[in-house]
Amino acid sequence: MSLPLAQPDRIALITGASSGIGAELARELAERGQNVALVARSTDKLVDLAQELQGLGVRAEVLQTDLSNRSERAALPGRIDELGLWVSILVNNAGLSTMGRVHHADPDAEMNMIEVDVMAVADLCTRFLPTMVEKRSGAVLNVASTAAFQPIPGQAGYAASKSFVLSYTHALAGELRGTNVTATALCPGPVRTGFGDAAGISQQDAESALPRFMWEPAPAVARCGVDAMAAGRTVAIPGVANQVTAFFGDHIPRRLLMPLMASKHPGMRRD
Fold first, then answer.
1. Which CATH number is associated with domain 10-270?
2. For 6-17, b where at least 16 C-beta lie within 10 A, e where not — what string?
3. Looking at 36-160, which runs of residues are DSSP E strands?
4. What percent of the chain has pLDDT over 90?
5. What is the enclosing helix (H) or strand (E) of 234?
6. Which long-range contacts (CB under 8 A, 24 or more apart) does 115-121 make?
7. pLDDT tens digit string along 249-270?
8. For the chain, domain boundaries
9. Are 150 and 249 in contact (CB under 8 A)?
10. 82-93 confidence digits (pLDDT tens)
11. What would the pLDDT profile of 101-153 be if each residue is shown by its tens digit?
């Protein structure tokens, strides 16, 4: 397997591209000659990144979109068509988390998280996969998390959302066999980005909850994801420590694991 060929009429669409893993995924794909469509709510950051990537000799389009808005998501294929392009690589990276116990949660914040982390992934796959299959060329990279491998008290909705992404991607991979289109789930462990701050957890609290050897830099995570997509692998977990953690999280009995995780998670201590 390999990435779909970079061609003038093809583009890789990356959601959540304004910072963190999303921006690094865009850089990694551009360095491999792929045109990129950068999708996020923050226009200024997208414009700066587009200018940087254009310096690599690729086409970089900015598509400001609120992925929690269903009508804005629905408009994306038409906006790509107007550019004379089709999406040969779809990267569903946009995501967010809430923090704390469900009975203390803001319902609007919880539903917004599920809209972005779950609904947007299924929505965009449903909209862009038909053209890939028709043209018999394409790849999907859905960014999940090692949180997908076990429930997490203090981040119940986030872990469940990422479990959906992982299961959904496995199913897509099975459906797409023989089409020359692949589906890959990238499952990072902890990464130093602004993700935790947005969820309401400080970097200090995050690092105290998770050992230093588990943390991976965003460029390495992006490289792992694109390499796995190029190889046609269904699951990619950056870092040996996170691979081991995911395995045990998936296999340790929940009655033993949940009390331990509840005692360690910053979202539980905060309440």
1. 3.40.50.720
2. beeebbbbbbbb
3. 36-40, 60-64, 86-92, 138-143
4. 77
5. none
6. 115/67, 115/68, 115/70, 116/67, 116/68, 117/158, 117/161, 117/162, 117/164, 117/165, 118/161, 118/164, 118/165, 119/70, 120/15, 120/67, 120/68, 120/73, 120/92, 120/94, 121/92, 121/164, 121/165, 121/168
7. 888 888 888 887 877 788 876 5
8. 10-270
9. yes
10. 999 999 999 999
11. 999 999 999 999 999 999 999 999 999 999 999 999 999 999 999 999 999 99
Tokens read off for 191: 């990464």
Mean pLDDT of the chain: 91
Say if CB 193 and CB 242 are below 8 A apart.
Answer: no
The answer to whether 89 and 37 have CB atoms below 8 angstroms apart is: no
**Residue 35: which H helix or E strand, with range?**
none
* Catalytic center residues: 158
Find out whether 96 and 113 touch, Cβ atoms under 8 Å: yes
